[in-house]
Write a structure and sequence with these properties.
It is built from five helices and five strands; from the N terminus they run αββαββαααβ. It is globular. The strands form two sheets. It has a three-stranded antiparallel β-sheet with strand order 3-4-5, with helices on one face. It has a two-stranded antiparallel ribbon with strand order 1-2. A hairpin with a 2-residue loop joins β1 and β2. About 30% of the residues lie in helices and about 15% in strands. The structure holds iron/sulfur cluster. Iron/sulfur cluster binds next to loops.
């Protein structure tokens, strides 16, 4: 996050406390998404974005890795998939578990994000 702040994007974060910041989303959409659907911080994007289409989940017992229902999955090599899983694995557990519950997002935005998450194909890679 410091790299993103250093790159001149302070307005896109809300400070929850000195150690915790939250993205300032609009309609539950990432503020770094451009109108042409490109990522405006591609080189600096966080691990969760680098891991896509692998998603880490801690809702069950231990950590699971889910593979999203995304057309790019069929074009990924085992090595690329392994790198994405490593990115997903680098996300601290507490960032996965409670990120929505402690956020300042509206109830409607959280429901919208969770609805998008439910579209995921729950293929556990282990
Ligand atoms: S890749 Fe990540 S940071 Fe970039 S636009 Fe998408 S969600 Fe936002």
């Amino acid at each position: 996050m410091e790299k993103v702040l250093d790159a001149g994007h302070p307005d896109f974060f809300i400070e929850i406390n000195p150690d915790q910041f939250e993205l300032r989303s609009r309609d539950a959409v990432c503020p770094f998404l451009a109108e042409d659907f490109s990522c405006t911080i591609h080189e600096l994007r966080p691990p969760a974005c680098r891991a896509w289409p692998v998603h880490a989940s801690c809702e069950g017992e231990g950590r699971e890795y889910l593979l999203m229902d995304c057309p790019i999955v069929d074009r990924l090599s085992d090595e690329e998939l392994g790198e994405m899983m490593a990115q997903a694995g680098s996300i601290p557990e507490e960032n996965i578990v409670n990120s929505f519950k402690r956020s300042s997002l509206s109830k409607e935005d959280i429901e919208l994000i969770e609805k998008r998450f439910r579209m995921f194909k729950s293929l556990v890679l282990k």
